[in-house]
Amino acid sequence: MPKWKTSVTAILLAVASIAQESSGIMSPDTKRVGGHLACLCGACKNTIGDCAMLECSYCKPKREKIAALQAEGRSDQSIIDAVVAEEGRQALAVPPTEGFTLLAWTMPYAAIGFGLIVIWLFVRSLRRRPAGAAPEIDQAVLNTYQERIDKDTANLD
Q: What domain range includes position 10?
């Protein structure tokens, strides 16, 4: 890409950023509340507060709605609750730690702990096994094999 095109693109991005900030939809307060809400446009995995797509079809209207609700004097939590009531729990950037989601948050740690306990018990059981002496061998069976060995080695000479 030619150098002048890169410069023009950078200038346009800066102007768009300044325009968004001056309109109030990218104020620090809007970013703070938007940081708790996920961008559901399907193209990114960001929050509404840090989605970098300029004309995001999901974030732009939500930022405007957040700014309007803040202008009414609503608290951050009431704004987040309003968006969750409208969009569902998938609108939250971090799922709440209650009910099934609490289980989903804790299950990996519980599984790792359980696996470590099983490994520890297995190693402990290996350590407890006696080195053990050789099992008792029936002398009659041993004599039978010794006679066969003697007979076969005699034929080799």
A: 3-91
